[in-house]
Amino acid sequence: MHVEVQVDPSRLQRMLRRRGGLAERRLRARTERVAALARQEAAPHGSVASRITTDVREGPSGLVGFVISNHPASRYILDGTRPHLIRPRRRKALRFDVGGEIVFAKLVRHPGTRAHNFLGIALRLGR
After folding, report:
1. CA atoms of 33 and 125, how far apart (whole Å)
2. Which of the two ends of the chain, N or C, has the fewest CB atoms closer than 10 A to its terminal CB?
3. What's residue 43's pLDDT?
4. d(CA 65, CA 54)
5. Euclidean distance between the first and final Cα of the chain, in Å?
6. d(C-alpha 58, C-alpha 117), whole Å
């Protein structure tokens, strides 16, 4: 028995790279895996994890997977903050809870926060 198979490389390439094809499905799965790791890393930062999404788009050289954090505080967590003063904007004093007691202050000296690149960590772990 003799079997001959001819493969058209350009057709095979189109089949693999088309929308919904094997390459896109694999890229979506990998992008979701990285996003899940990013959500785990961002969990200590409150609601940031719930605002992490994914997207797969056509780029100049093929499909590109994106892990997106659109929480307003994301930039501060990724880059950290320097020590700074916090002053009231609308009232005469700031009001917050310390150990179950209500405290008022005209000024707070915030020590800053250390950067936590949860997206970069997730990307390295997801490889």
Report:
1. 10
2. N
3. 92
4. 7
5. 44
6. 26
Give the whole-angstrom CA distance, residue 35 versus residue 54: 7
Torsion sign, CA atoms 36, 38, 42, 46: negative
pTM above 0.90, yes or no: no
Helix or strand holding residue 56 (H, E):
strand 52-59
DSSP 113: B
Closest CA to 51 of 126, 118, 127: 118
Please compute, for residue 102, the number of CA atoms within 13 A of its CA located in the half-sphere on the CB side. 3
Q: What are phi and psi of 86, to 5 degrees?
A: -115, 120
- Token pair recorded at residue 88: 């009231």
Structure-token match 């003799």, residue found = 2
Q: What is the pLDDT of residues 72-104, one digit of tens each?
A: 999 999 999 999 999 999 999 999 999 999 999
